[in-house]
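User: I've been trying to design a sequence by hand for this structure and keep getting stuck. Would you show me what you'd pick, starting by listing the structure so we're on the same page?

Assistant: Good idea, let's start from the same input. This is the structure you sent:
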């Protein structure tokens, strides 16, 4: 699966890919990265602080010439008190980052570490890894452009799923999804995905959102039980895709149960913010607004 969640933030990449035009290491840039890693180590373990307090600590620790340099990515709201967040700090070659999922202010899952361009990382990785180990940082996974560690708290994830189920009903755990659609299904119900909703190509490249491709493949099977599970699941964009697919199925004379009809109305009334592609550009709308924009009727 792993379609979208924990993708590097555009802002982080913008900082991380600013590299020297020379092959020789810039000592000032490297010193800044070493200092940032040491500041970051002093904040560990991350989970000891609710995210709002972590933001305050980032602001306090990462100050350059009296100016705050940390930034907070605009949270992605899933509804039910659940959201995706990201905070980061640019350095010389690299950026420090924490990105994850919160229920209220408690961590459900997070990934934290250092990200650079692959070219820069090859030059400076020994220094930064040594700094990390000397500071007794947790075990990390090294990649071609940095390193990171991850944590997940299943009890918090269960609380989020229970909140959704209390409103929309339980998923049918007994359904069997065809193997060729398993990845599509898992992404559309994932608590770590927030699918962009669209009907056709989006952005300068005219790329069709993966969620649209996935829901179309599932809808072709005429498996209402699969669509009903997506409707009740944890991906806000996935729920809207299922809502639109079920409205379309009903227009083609598919018989929906009263319970499904009720859930469709509940999903349409949710105040979760949906990223939708209209006319090639992205907009933020509610589920009800998306239904209206797409010319569908509940």
């Amino acid at each position: 699966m792993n379609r979208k969640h924990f993708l590097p933030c555009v802002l982080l990449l913008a900082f991380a890919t600013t590299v020297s035009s020379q092959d020789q290491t810039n000592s000032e840039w490297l010193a800044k990265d070493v200092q940032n890693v040491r500041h970051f180590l002093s904040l560990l373990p991350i989970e000891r602080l609710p995210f709002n307090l972590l933001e305050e600590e980032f602001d306090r620790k990462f100050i350059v010439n009296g100016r705050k340099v940390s930034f907070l990515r605009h949270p992605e709201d899933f509804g039910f008190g659940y959201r995706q967040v990201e905070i980061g700090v640019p350095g010389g070659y690299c950026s420090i980052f924490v990105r994850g999922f919160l229920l209220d202010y408690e961590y459900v899952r997070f990934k934290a570490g250092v990200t650079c361009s692959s070219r820069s990382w090859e030059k400076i990785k020994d220094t930064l890894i040594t700094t990390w180990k000397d500071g007794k940082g947790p075990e990390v996974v090294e990649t071609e452009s940095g390193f990171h560690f991850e944590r997940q708290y299943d009890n918090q994830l269960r609380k989020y799923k229970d909140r959704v189920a209390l409103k929309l009903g339980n998923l049918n755990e007994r359904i069997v999804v065809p193997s060729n659609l398993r990845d599509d299904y898992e992404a559309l119900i994932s608590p770590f995905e927030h699918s962009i909703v669209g009907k056709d190509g989006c952005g300068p490249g005219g790329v069709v959102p993966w969620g649209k491709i996935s829901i179309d493949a599932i809808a072709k099977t005429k498996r209402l039980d699969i669509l009903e599970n997506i409707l009740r699941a944890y991906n806000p964009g996935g729920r809207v895709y299922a809502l639109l697919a079920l409205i379309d199925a009903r227009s083609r004379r598919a018989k929906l149960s009263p319970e499904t009809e009720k859930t469709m109305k509940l999903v349409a009334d949710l105040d979760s913010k949906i990223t939708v592609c209209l006319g090639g550009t992205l907009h933020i709308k509610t589920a009800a607004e998306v239904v209206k924009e797409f010319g569908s009727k509940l």
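That's my pick for every position. To get oriented when you compare it with your attempt: DSSP finds eleven helices and eleven strands in the chain. The first strand starts at residue 63 and ends at 64.
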